[in-house]
Amino acid sequence: MRVRELERALGVDLFDRTHRNARLTPKGRELMDYASRILDLSTELEHRVGAPEAVSGTVRFGVAEVVTMTWLPRLITRIAERFPNVRLEIEEALTAELMASLHQAELELVLAPGHTRTPGVSTLSLGTVDFQWMASPTLGLDQHTYSPHELAEYPIIGMKQSSFHYTALEDWFLTEHVRCRYLARCKSVAVAASMSMAGMGVSYLPVRSYEQEIAQKKLAIVQVTNPLKPVEFIAACPTGQTYSLARAVAELACEVSDFVRTGALTR
């Protein structure tokens, strides 16, 4: 149905044509909302009711390294089982870089550290991950509880400014009005961990990813005063669509994630 035919059928003007460029009227904007909801319902119907092989397309999503190191392979397997004709394009990067790509429509989904009330995105909680300061046992830092001022005396192997933790760790040191001495700022958690295992300094690492190294005494947890809370991870999609293929993948990520659950936090 053409626009003017639709206007006659509804008995309202959908566009204001008194200007050089036609503009949506209030009724036109209202119609767009209904049209968007109809498209979302159509997509959801196809994904939830239709045969899995009938769903096709490409999902571009980004992941944080901790997701890659843990349950990403299981998610890819689950997607292949549920939607065999869906193709994946996966990018690994630091959180700020991933969220920038999401806002620029270069990605449709991000699985990374974040907050369920992040402005401008629709989110699902994937659970929390405990991070702790760690160092090689050869440094002998596991025999004492360190304040920010005391820990700042040791070389810190940090992450780049676009990482989720950068600001939180800077603020932790500033609670005692000190700045840490960075030996290096890495883009990779694995690189920071390897440098710490080599006895080069102290880094802030996800405990579950390095339980084996801790058991083998390659790493030791460094106890500190006022430790930071576990980090929440989220599946983030752009707002504006209540359902999409990316949202379906986000829901599968929630099913697969084995991060610690603190409750059903969704928005």
TrEMBL record:
Signal peptide: none annotated. Keywords: DNA-binding, Transcription, Transcription regulation. It comes from the Bacteria. InterPro entries: LysR_HTH_N (IPR000847), LysR_subst-bd (IPR005119), WH-like_DNA-bd_sf (IPR036388), WH_DNA-bd_sf (IPR036390). Residues 1-25 form the HTH lysR-type domain. One of its GO terms (molecular function) is DNA-binding transcription factor activity. Belongs to the LysR transcriptional regulatory family. This is LysR family transcriptional regulator. It comes from Caballeronia calidae.
